[in-house]
Fold:
Amino acid sequence: MSTFISSPHTLFTNNVTRIMLLVVAALIPGIAAHIYFFGIGIVINSIICIVTALLCEAGMLKLRDRPLWPFLTDGSAIVTALLIAIGLPSLFPMWLAIIATAFAIIIAKHLYGGLGNNPFNPAMVGYVLLLIAFPKDMTLWLAPHAAGPAVDFVSTLQFNILGQLPVIAHFDAITMATPLDTVKTELGTGLTVSQIVTNHPHLADAMFGKGWDIINLLFLLGGIGLLYKRVITWRIPVSMLITIAIFASIAYASNNTLHASPLFHLLGGATMLGAFFIATDPVTASTTPRGQLIYGCGIGIFTYLIRNYGSYPDGVAFAVLLMNLAAPTIDYYTRPRVFGHHPGTSS
Structure:
């Protein structure tokens, strides 16, 4: 009797480094916009996360008696670190970034057997750890460029290391909740969408939130580049984005005073980063053609439901982990029919 092996799958080693380098290159435009709108903190967070990831990777490889050089240079740990760093506010305690990255590499990756064996996306495991344990640190961002005081490199570095801002105003005076968090929280107080926009000028640009729309568009551009290079396929990101758009459109059409527009959901938060760089992880995602469509739709549904009815402002990370859990079953029931096999015949 034949057997079917579902995810997790091991990538062919001769392609891993090239794939990871292309992913890093595709992230650069979005990271550059991130620096422009929210300051240099993402660079500091990235360095901290990458160093932590490589040290943890080396330590675990040594404990598992595996060769260091091939795995340290394949780029997978660096991509995991970057995905965590992108989701962190510019002013963020260094020790929390270290904990999240170490947890992702040690627990979510190596304790399952390393690259190709982990059932859950390591970056999302580390990110969700922070969301659950340290929600306030994860939701307070600097005001976007031109909407608040700038924070220079030295001040950012000193806060991330020591938790102090030496020159400028107090931390609470220069930070704000993300647009998703602002809308979610204030809708819960009885305000309408138009009232929220009036109260928060940085949401006035079609409610995307100043800077978040540009960042998402640049991650979309990077994702298109990955599609062009055939690093990823279209099924997961397209099905995820269409599903979010459909659910948001139905809610918006039913009551546009209590529901944000579809564009707000598509160009806000981690939508494009999630669709093209996280949901498409070849190790933890569904691998069959029909399964990828179902997988992407599932992430879109959970993302929208969590954003609107859950306790967290953005549901991308949770949605990805939930569908990681479902990926083996989806693959099992959507496996292509074997050529020459007829219904009713034994395997």
Notes: DSSP finds 17 helices and two strands in the chain. Strands lie at 140-142, 175-177. The mean pLDDT is 87. The radius of gyration is 21 Å.
